[in-house]
Amino acid sequence: MTRDWDHFVAIDWSGAKGERHKGIAIAIAEAKGGAPVLVEPPRGGFSRNDVLEILRDDLPANSLVGLDLGISLPFNDAGAFFPGWDASPKSAKRLWALIDDICDGDPHLGAHSFVEHPQASRYFRHGKDRMGDKFLLPGAVTREGRFREAETAQRAQKCRPVSNFNLVGAAQVGKSSLTGMRMLHRLQGHLPVWPVDPIPDKRLKQGGSMLVEIYTGLASKETAALGGRTKLLTYADLNAALEVLDCPAVDRIGEVDDHSSDALLTAAWLRRVAPEKRRWEPKCLTAQIAYTEGWTFGAL
Description:
Structural class: alpha/beta
Radius of gyration: 18 Å
CATH architecture of the largest domain: 2-Layer Sandwich
Organism: Erythrobacter rubeus
Distance between the termini: 15 Å
Number of strands: 10
Shape: globular
Protein name: DUF429 domain-containing protein
């Protein structure tokens, strides 16, 4: 199913410690055209709670929101998020609830209590030389950890996703995904999440907005394949990439940080690819996978 949207919002997220983060960036592209624009952050940067409040209370009507994190954990490979743990949930939404409950005392939507939980910690890689005894499934052929079906699809598109159970290194997505899942739990009833929830009718009282998981690396990869630049160090580089998406240039000059460029480029990319039916109907996405693992929008 495809439908039209009035706004395309891309959010580069952060799972780092603390309240405010330079790593969180928000960009909006309007369906009617024009260059994507950055949402000006408060002093010190956005907090995760700031983003929660924007998505819950201040989101423009009929927005497609892309959030750069994993909305769930691997399930399909073992028939469980946490095989061998009797508290392992059966759905993505119950996973969000479990994480938020265990981390209830963690400020700023942090997830420290979950990754250090006596049982949950066994499934994560915590450091170069610290790996939970459940991080790898029996018979694993690599030490990369477990992947969702969406991440397998990303690999087929020549991307290099990292396991959501990995808490190590600059490319790790574990902490950002877990903190994001706390936010998703608190957004229930306010903002549906594809494909865990059905696509809403734009005529709904809430304005018909929806959140999807994005992988900014996929947007960058596809844009580069069309002739865009792979390294976006300046606004000139960014505008060269936007040009191949038939998007007007951002009216800024000088250097651009990775978080801002990722958000701006991905907002424009979302606007371009959202009308494509294949993005909403990837070949490996089943009802069971949607219910448990979710999917990355754009992965085929």
